[in-house]
């Protein structure tokens, strides 16, 4: 949700720079199309692999949900996002590019929630904690 709000804030800044241009509406359809493709072909398969790996652990702890490289990658992505927002500030084209990137990533992440829709992430926990356990 934070990325969605950040992407919209960058869009609003681009709109304030050139309110008469219709080009600044481009990030929204780009985000829906590219974000949907990312969710379907990149994030969902990764989500399913991670859920299978977690399911195979005998007694998973919170520190085992993600591998160590994930946290390094996450930190670098956050720092890059902060830097890109500052870099784009005041430049119409750069604001549109970074806004598109943020909105695309947020749509992809929200779209990957479908991987949790069937409850696969919680199936083992529910079956071991339910009535009659």
Task: Write up this protein.
There is one protein chain. By secondary structure, the chain is mostly helical. It is built from 5 helices and no strands. The two termini are 37 Å apart.
Radius of gyration: 19 Å
Strand content: under 5%
Shape assignment: elongated
Report how far the terminal alpha carbons are from each other: 37 Å
Query: What is the H-and-E element order?
Result: HHHHH
Helix-residue proportion: over 70%
Instruction: Give the overall average pLDDT.
Output: 81
**Largest sheet: number of strands, sense, barrel closure:** none
Number of helical stretches of at least 4 residues: 5
Which ranges are low-confidence, i.e. pLDDT below 50, for 5 or more consecutive residues?
124-133
Secondary structure category: mainly alpha
How many distinct folded domains? 1
Number of E strands = 0
Quickly describe the structure.
With 133 residues, the chain is an all-alpha fold.
Primary descriptors:
elongated, disordered C terminus, mainly alpha, single chain, 5 helices, 133 residues, 0% strand
List the helices and strands and how they pair.
Elements: H1 2-17, H2 27-56, H3 68-88, H4 92-111, H5 123-129
């Amino acid at each position: 949700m934070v990325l969605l709000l950040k992407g919209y804030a960058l869009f609003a800044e681009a709109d304030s720079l050139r309110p008469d241009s219709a080009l600044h509406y481009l990030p929204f359809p780009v985000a829906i199309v590219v974000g949907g493709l990312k969710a379907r072909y990149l994030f969902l398969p990764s989500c399913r692999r991670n859920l299978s790996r977690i399911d195979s652990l005998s007694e998973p702890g919170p520190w085992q949900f993600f591998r160590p490289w994930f946290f390094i990658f996450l930190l670098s992505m956050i720092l890059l996002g902060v830097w890109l927002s500052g870099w784009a500030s005041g430049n119409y084209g750069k604001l549109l590019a970074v806004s598109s990137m943020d909105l695309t990533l947020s749509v992809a992440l929200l779209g990957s929630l479908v991987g949790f829709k069937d409850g696969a992430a919680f199936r083992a926990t529910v079956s071991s904690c339910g009535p009659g356990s």
